[in-house]
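Study the following:
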Amino acid sequence: MKKVIFITNIPAHYRVALLNRTYRLLIKDKIELGVIFNRLSYQRREYWDTSISNFEFPYYVLNKLSGYSTTRKIYEFGFGLKFLLDKINPDLIISAGFSLQSFKAYLYSKEKSIPFLLYSGETKYSAPLSVDLLRNNLRKYLIKRATGFIVYCGKAKEYIESFGRKDNIHIVINTLDTDEFASKLSNYLPKQESEIFRILSVGDLDFRKGYHLLFQALALVKKNCNINFCVQIVGNSGNYMRKLLDLSDQLSLREISFIGKVQYNNIPKFYVNSDLFILNSLSEPFGLVMLEAAVAGLPILGSKYAGGSYELIEPGKNGFIIDPHKFGEVAEFIVTLMKNRELRKQMGEYSKKIVQNKVNINLASIQFANAIKLNLL
C-alpha cells in the first residue's frame, strides 16, 4: 500500500469533501491518502459545520504549539510535523501554502528522497510581493525546489509559471461539494418573482472584499435606474463595517442589509431568494461563493482579481468579469440585468451548465487523484 499525506491548516468543509472523494478513488488503486491538520478550527471559521465523524481518510492533528491563530488567519510553524511523518512513513507529501510548515515538509521529503508537491491557490493578485518578506522568500524557495504543484485554477498555474516553473503543474479546480449544496438548495421553495431586484454578496466585511467600491456602483444604479432593488451582505463583521455603515448613509443607500455571520448550513436560503450574485473583491485566490451562486443558478458578476472568475464566468453567457474600481461599468452591468428578466434566467441556466460540465466535486476529485498517481509512478 502506497501512502500519500496531505498537510493543511484546518478541515474546511469543502476541502474535506474533496479529500473524502479522492480517498475513495485512490484506495481502489491501493493508495492511501491521509491528512495532517495544523488544528481543527479557528475563530474566523467557527461558523463552518465540519465534523470529524465525516472524515473517511485517516487524519492527524499537530500539537497546539504547531501554529498560532488570530481572528484573520493561522500562522503554521509545523512543530511536531517530523515526528508524525516518521510515524506515517509516506511515499509522497503534498503541503498546502507557503508556510514554515510546508518548508519543514519539504526538508523531510528531501531527507527521505520522496516527491514533494505544493498545493496552492495563490495568484498574482492574491499574493503581492513585498508584503511579507519571510513568506516571499519561502515562496521562492519552495517553488524552485518542489517536485510539482497542484493548483486551484488557471490563474494559480500562471502564478507558479511566473517564477520560471513550467513543469508538473496540475490544475485541480477548487470546489465545494456541489452535489450536497444543490441538495441543500432543493430544500427551499423556488424564489417567487418580485418587483424588487435582489442582489446578494457573501464574504467577510473586510477591505479586500471591495464593498466600498460596490457601494459606489450601487449609488449609480439608484441614480440611473428607477427599478427598486435590495442588497443583502452575508459575512462576519469587523471594524470595516463601521466605515461601510457611514458610507451607505453618505450615499443614501437604504437598500443595503448587513446580515452578519450565518451558519454555513443556513447559507443556501440567501442564494435561493436572490436574482444576482456579486463578488467585488480586490484580492481573492478563488472565490468559492461564486461556485455556490452558480450551483444556485444565478447570474454572476465576479471580480477580475478572483481566480475563480475565470473558471466560473463566461462573459455575456452567465455573467461578467468586473473591475471593482470601474464602478460605473459595474453599475451598467447591474442595470442591464435588472431590466432584463429573461437574460437573468438564461444566464442562471448557463451557470448551472458550467457546474455540470466544468467545476464540480466529481471532476475535481478525479483531477486530484490523477495528479497524485502521476507523481507516485
